[in-house]
């Protein structure tokens, strides 16, 4: 990476934009520290992928991973919705928090759409644009051409372009640069390891900043999308936004250091550490889920003829750990009296905790399960 040239500043009259160099070219690694970090990240990612194969009903637990990713990725952009709030229905969200809630819901839908579309579309500009359109639909960035690359200049930080922290390339370069990025994605003749490849793709995408809004969220979503598209992961079980959020200053500093100081090495190190730590946390989370699942199954087995209905409710809680009495009635077909009796049993077992404090429209949280995603 010694010969890495990130690009150059271009005068645009009263300001200068940064024109990144194309990335669809030959790359070689000559740094042993990166090689060691890469080996460790690959090993942990492989363990996570293998571990996920042994999780029964994995889709139930992926739903919660996606919700957490949505809240953490949006949090980096200033959206203040926590995981519990993200699980609420729209009408239960306070009006002053509804905009943030909508953005998180859009991220969840965008991620699900993008993963499902991989069965029909390759990792491409078309897929990126589709995903972006869902992300910004009906929220604060809805007027900023959702689903289309920008046609005007944007900038990052600062009250105006003159004092911006970073000015991406002129809009006239966006299509060309994104076409180069797409070619790099599908360039199998270059033997750059896949984790370094997606690290470079993420860096380049954030440097191009091809949309007027939502670039950070889309760029982070692309990491998981790429790993699934290349079959490095069979299921979308790795999400780096939590690592980026906890190390937000380093995240931005390392991206800027690559642009300003030709230091791509530090960005690679940071990214690989993120993959390793996140994969390890993912394995621990799945292991904790299995232990919790086993304990709850033991508790439920003692409920006799109510065990089947109880298990049906718990299966729903793994997918969405916030529930109310009408939802339980819909799952089980029980009468209201029997529903509340089952809820009381769940509270006694420590499975559910009432969180609204009201007499009507009570909501119950599967707190122990949520805690596992923040352990």
Which SSEs are present, and which pair or pack?
Layout (H helix, E strand, L loop, with lengths): L6 E5 L4 E5 L11 H22 L4 H19 L6 H4 L11 H20 L7 H12 L34 H15 L8 H15 L6 H15 L11 H6 L1 H14 L2 H38 L5 H13 L2 E2 L1 H8 L3 H14 L3 E2 L9 E2 L1 H6 L3
Helix pairs in contact: 1-11, 2-4, 2-12, 4-5, 4-8, 5-8, 6-7, 7-8, 7-11, 10-11, 13-14
Short description:
With 375 residues, the protein is mainly alpha-helical. It has helices spanning 32-53, 58-76, 83-86, 98-117, 125-136, 171-185, 194-208, 215-229, 241-246, 248-261, 264-301, 307-319, 325-332, 336-349, 367-372; strands at residues 7-11, 16-20, 322-323, 353-354, 364-365.
Question: What Rg, in angstroms, do the CA atoms define?
Answer: 23 Å
Please state the average pLDDT score.
92
| Major sheet details | 3 strands, antiparallel
Q: What is the name of the CATH class of the largest domain?
A: Mainly Alpha
CATH superfamily of the largest domain: Fido-like domain
And the CATH topology of the largest domain?
Answer: Fic-like fold
CATH hierarchy: architecture of the largest domain: Orthogonal Bundle
Structural class: mainly alpha
What percentage of residues falls in helices of 4 or more residues? Answer: 55-70%
Structural shape: globular
Write down how many β-strands occur, each being a DSSP E stretch of 2 or more residues.
5
User: Domains counted in the coordinates: how many?
Assistant: 2
Model regions low in confidence, pLDDT < 50 over at least 5 residues: none
Q: Which percent band covers the strand fraction? A: under 5%
N-to-C order of helices and strands: EEHHHHHHHHHHHHEHHEEH
What is the CA–CA distance across the termini?
Answer: 36 Å
């Amino acid at each position: 990476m010694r010969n890495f040239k990130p690009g150059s500043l271009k005068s645009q009259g009263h300001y200068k934009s940064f024109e990144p160099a194309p990335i669809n070219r030959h790359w070689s690694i000559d740094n042993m520290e990166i090689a060691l970090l890469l080996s460790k990240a690959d090993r942990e990612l492989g363990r996570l992928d293998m571990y996920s194969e042994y999780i029964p009903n994995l889709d139930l637990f992926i739903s919660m991973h996606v919700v957490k990713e949505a809240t953490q990725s949006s949090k980096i952009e200033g959206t203040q919705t926590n995981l519990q709030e993200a699980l609420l229905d729209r009408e239960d969200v306070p009006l002053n928090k509804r905009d943030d809630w909508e953005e998180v819901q859009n991220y969840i839908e965008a991620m699900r759409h993008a993963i499902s579309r991989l069965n029909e579309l390759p990792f491409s500009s078309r897929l990126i644009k589709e995903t972006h359109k869902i992300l910004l639909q009906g929220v604060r960035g809805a007027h900023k051409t959702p689903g289309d690359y920008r046609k005007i200049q944007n900038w990052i930080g600062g009250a105006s372009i003159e004092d911006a922290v970073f000015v991406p390339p002129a809009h006239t370069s966006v299509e060309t640069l994104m076409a180069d990025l797409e070619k790099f994605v599908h360039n199998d003749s270059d033997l750059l390891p896949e984790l370094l490849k997606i690290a470079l793709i993420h860096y380049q995408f954030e440097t191009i900043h091809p949309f007027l809004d939502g670039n950070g969220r889309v760029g982070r979503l692309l990491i998981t999308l790429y790993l699934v598209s290349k079959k490095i992961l069979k299921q979308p079980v790795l999400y780096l936004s939590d690592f980026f959020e906890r190390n937000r200053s380093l995240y931005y500093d390392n991206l800027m250091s690559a642009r300003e100081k030709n230091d791509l090495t530090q960005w690679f190190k940071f990214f690989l550490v993120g993959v390793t730590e996140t994969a390890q946390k993912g394995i621990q989370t799945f292991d904790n889920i299995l232990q919790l699942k086993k304990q709850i199954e033991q508790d439920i087995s003692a409920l006799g003829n109510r065990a089947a209905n109880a298990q049906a409710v718990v299966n729903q809680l793994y997918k969405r750990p916030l529930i109310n009495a009408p939802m339980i009635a819909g799952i089980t077909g029980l009468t209201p009296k029997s529903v509340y009796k089952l809820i009381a049993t769940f509270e006694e077992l420590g499975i559910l905790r009432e969180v609204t404090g009201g007499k009507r429209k009570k909501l119950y949280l599967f707190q122990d399960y949520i805690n596992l995603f923040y352990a």
